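Bit of a strange request maybe. I'm writing a small parser for structure token strings and I need a real example to test against, not something I typed by hand. Could someone generate the tokens for this chain?
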Amino acid sequence: MISSLRTLLAAFALCLSLAACGGGNKAADAFMADYEKIVVSAEAKASGAKVTSADLQELGKQGGELGQKAATLQASGPWSADQVKRYTELTKRYSDATTKMAQKASS
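Reply from user aminoacidic:
Good idea to test on real output. This should exercise your parser:
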């Protein structure tokens, strides 16, 4: 799970460097809509009573997939400042939810 968070952070750093280059990437908007659904789902699970190892495994898998997809999109064209901001906010929310879930699973 930590490696998937690292992947997301690396993708975020790449995104920041690309954001200064242009006015946005339409495919990034679609990606972020999907990303937000995953974040909302993770937040709901993190707020639930019980977190299973399967939940954590799924988060790790999703995190890796999200990082790869973000990196591919970033390479396909620059992101706008708004897209970078939204991606940053979603990444923080996802990270907070996964951390909360990991803490619940270990207690």
